[in-house]
């Protein structure tokens, strides 16, 4: 992993160091909004779902329980993915492909080129405040998502917070996310959601679902 990715990895490894993920500011027991969006895609159960910035999310076991068969969870933090794996029964964990990689400059993820049916990102995109970082992220997305595939991005909304986990964030609307993705992606569904953190703070998000042109 390059120095750029190593710096990000060090930050997120430190965030997950205590191991008490239930108190992290983005933790949710039941990722109902993400599941709703994935169901909206009408993707078959054997569709390849890529969870970007997966961390120690509870989405993965929920997807397994719904019958999805090909799930790839990726994060720059090996510690975060180890935490996620450790919270699942071994038999379930073995059904998931766990990839420690930097989405901005991917190595292992490159093998998924044009194979991803559903790209899911809850709360990673808004950390990319630098245009260069955002362009690298979008380049990976364009290379991995198949024609006719779907992109789910949930980010802090325009009235959301401006910092999270000690880092500045970039706030979005569905229009701004669509502009970033470009004309090849059509907005299918979006909604605002006020997430309540484990400490009780409300954080406004915007959830978006886009479909890539089949051509």
Any overview of this molecule?
This protein has 215 residues and is an alpha/beta fold. Helices cover 30% and strands 29% of the residues. The chain is built from seven helices and nine strands; from the N terminus they run H-H-E-H-E-H-H-E-E-H-E-E-E-H-E-E. It has helices spanning 3-16, 32-40, 59-65, 78-86, 90-93, 131-144, 174-181; strands at residues 48-52, 70-75, 96-100, 116-122, 145-156, 163-164, 167-168, 185-196, 202-212. The strands form two sheets. Strands 3-2-1-4-5-9-8 form a seven-stranded mixed beta sheet. A two-stranded antiparallel ribbon has the order 6-7. A hairpin with a 2-residue loop joins strand 6 and strand 7 (167-168). The radius of gyration is 16 Å and the shape is globular. The relative contact order is 0.16. Mean pLDDT is 89; it is low at 1-5.
